[in-house]
Amino acid sequence: MNEADINEFRSEFEAIKKQALGDCDDGSCETPQESFDDYPDYVRAIYAEVMPPIKSGIYFSRWDVKGMAAEVDEHIVMDTRERMFQHFMRFIGTPEDMTNVIEQFDKHIDMKCDIYREYSEKYPSTKEIFDVKIEKADRAKKYLQKVYADFFV
Q1: What's phi and psi for 103, nearest 5 deg?
Q2: Are 109 and 50 in contact (CB under 8 A)?
Q3: Which domain holds residue 9?
Q4: CB contact at 8 A, 99 and 92
Q5: Is the confidence at residue 139, as pLDDT, over 70?
Q6: Does residue 110 surpass a pLDDT of 90?
Q7: Is the pLDDT of residue 120 over 50?
Q8: Taking a C-beta distance cutoff of 8 angstroms, is the pair 107, 72 a contact?
């Protein structure tokens, strides 16, 4: 392959790229992502404080969110975690609904903490790692109660 072939390949690639992107090669035509702007403040707060495992000590997978929604008779399709969380939060219309959602989060957190306790007993060298996660999980549960008190009482 000589330099002329490479230049020809490059020009063909640029033509295909221009055809595919049109005039949007700078990203200006991208469709806006769904954000939390259409949701109440508590949805953004819960997503920021409870969903990240670094803050709550618990990873809520897409399947976890889907399972929690199913427990309150809300059926959501598999998507990104963020969108699934948003769809799950659309279910909340009354304080009773929020209580049900918090119960699901608490139930899931307790289940994960039980697993963490089991592992820390089986493998004592991991105890301090799991104790930190359990501590964060307890704070997340308290935070959910605080959100309920701030927004629904």
Answers
A1: -60, -40
A2: no
A3: 1-31
A4: no
A5: yes
A6: yes
A7: yes
A8: no
